[in-house]
Amino acid sequence: MPELFDSEGLERDPPFFKTYNMKQQIKRLWVRALRSGQYKQGKGSLLNINTQNGEECFCVLGVLTDLYQKVMEVGTWDRNNRLLDGETPFTVGTSSLDYISLPIIVRDWAGLTRFNPVLVVEGKRVTVSQLNDTGKNFDDLAKIIENSL
């Protein structure tokens, strides 16, 4: 049986695994939003709200989740149910979906097959959130997403 994860801890792509088929219109919206300057970049969670000044910071996947909420008019950021460090879950109905990885409904809406897309950047397999959390700014991420998904 093949190993499910490679030496870097990233999920392998079995031959039967569906390849990325991100919806191009949604990809354009995401890239445009990342370049817009309307989102302050954060790390470690989809949305982090500073508990002292209320400043909202989104990771790259949080921007996509926020676009889903705005376009589909479904779900909310549960600003009253933040964790101690400001991590804010995305909620649909009475279910808190997630605060770290892409919610299933957002993933399916965007046409992605993973909660955290794996891309090849500079010859290495990395997740979109790894790129976000290790210093790539939203402009860099927009270019990578534009060329890789």
- Low-pLDDT parts are 14-19
Q: Please tell me how large the radius of gyration is.
A: 15 Å
Tally of contiguous helical segments: 5
Give the helices and strands as they follow along the chain. HEEHEEEHEEHH
How many domains, in number, for the residues? 1
Label the overall shape: globular
Strand element count: 7
Distance between the termini: 29 Å
Computed structural class? alpha+beta
Largest sheet: 3 strands, antiparallel
Strand content: 15-25%
| Strand arrangement in the largest pleated sheet | 3-4-5
- Percent helix among the residues? 25-40%
Average pLDDT level: 84
Question: What does this protein structure show overall?
Answer:
It is a single chain. With 149 residues, the chain is of the alpha+beta class. It has one domain (24-148). The protein is built from 5 helices and 7 strands, in the order αββαβββαββαα. The chain has helices spanning 24-35, 60-72, 104-110, 128-133, 138-148; strands at 47-49, 56-58, 76-77, 90-92, 95-98, 118-121, 124-127. Strands 3-4-5 form a 3-stranded antiparallel beta sheet, with helices on one face. A two-stranded antiparallel sheet has the order 1-2. Strands 6-7 form a two-stranded antiparallel sheet. A hairpin with a 6-residue loop joins strand 1 (47-49) and strand 2. Helix 1 packs across helix 2 (60-72) and helix 1 (24-35) packs antiparallel against helix 5 (138-148). The longest helix has 13 residues, at 60-72. The chain is globular and about 40 Å long.
